[in-house]
Amino acid sequence: MEDEYVDAATALIRRITTKIGIPDDVRIEATRLFITVFARHNLNQGSNTARSCACIMVAAKNTEDVQKMACLLTTMPKITEEFKDRMEEVVRFCANDSTELTSDHFMSRLQSLLQISDDVTSAATMIARRAVFRIPISVPAAAVFMASQVSSEKRSMKQVADVLRISEATVKEAYGDIYAHAARLFPEEHMSSEPLDSLPSP
Asked: What GO terms are given for molecular function (predicted)?
C-alpha cells in the first residue's frame, strides 16, 4: 500500500511541475524529498497533495518557480493549513539531515512576494546568517520581520508567515529568540530609519 501512495505522489509531483512549467531538476529533488521525508508515514492519512506541494516549494530554487507554486496554492485553499505543517516538516528534515538548505534559500522569495527593498533584504540576510541558532525557514522569516520594523517598509508577522506558508507562531517564536541579540545581528553599516530600541517586544 505504501508503494502505491509513493507512486501516486511521484506522478502528482510530475503533473504539478509540468502544469505550471517548473523544471525537471526541481521535480526530481521534490520527488526525492517526498520519498525521504514521507515514505515512512502512514500515507493514507492526510493529503498527498499537501505533502507534494511542500516538497516542490522547498525544492524550488528561484523566485519564478516559487511564485508559480504560490499562485497554484491560492487555488487549493483546502490544503493550506496542512501544507504549512508539511513545509515545516520538510524543512526540519533538511536541516537535521545536513542538506544544503540555508536562510538565503528563502530570502529571494521573501523579497519578491513582500516587495521589500534591497536595503531591508540585505539587513535581513545578515541577521539571518548570524542567527545560526534557529532552523533555516524560521530564520529569514524572523529576520525580515525584524529588519522591516526599523524601516519604512514594515511587514507584519502574518505577512511574512504567509509568504513562506508557515505558521505565525513559528515566526513569533524565532523572533523571540533573536530579539535579545538584535544589536549583534544587524549589520554594522545598516542605516535604519528607526532606532533598534523601537523594535516591538516578542
From this structure: TBP-class protein binding
**CA–CA gap between residue 3 and residue 39 (Å, rounded):** 8
112-154 per-position pLDDT tens digit = 778 899 889 889 988 888 876 555 567 888 999 999 999 999 9
- Nearest by Cα to 175 from 151, 162, 156, 189: 156
SS3 at position 135: coil
Global pTM reads 0.54
Q: Between 3.30.830.10, 2.40.128.110, 1.10.472.10, 3.90.1150.10, what CATH number should domain 104-198 receive? A: 1.10.472.10
Q: Whats the size of the chain, residue-wise? A: 202
